[in-house]
Amino acid sequence: xxxxxxxxxxxxxxxxxxxxxxxxxxxxxxxxxxxxxxxxxxxxxxxxxxxxxxxxxxxxxxxxx
Length: 65
Known about the structure:
This protein is of the alpha+beta class and 65 residues long. It has one domain. 18% of the residues lie in helices and 15% in strands. Strands 1-2 form a two-stranded antiparallel ribbon. β1 (2-6) and β2 (15-19) form a beta hairpin. The longest helix has 8 residues, at 41-48. The protein starts with a strand and ends in a 7-residue tail after the last helix.
């Protein structure tokens, strides 16, 4: 399956489309197909690592989302 992967903080150019293995749900989980997603201004700030206080929650050197 394809996934948009952001492995470091920076401008939108750091987002890469990669092929990853399809996740396998456990017995108490459900796998959901996403057909569309939206991007808002908060996503842009998180990608850039700003405000820096947010890095405490999302990863200091690289995003761990």
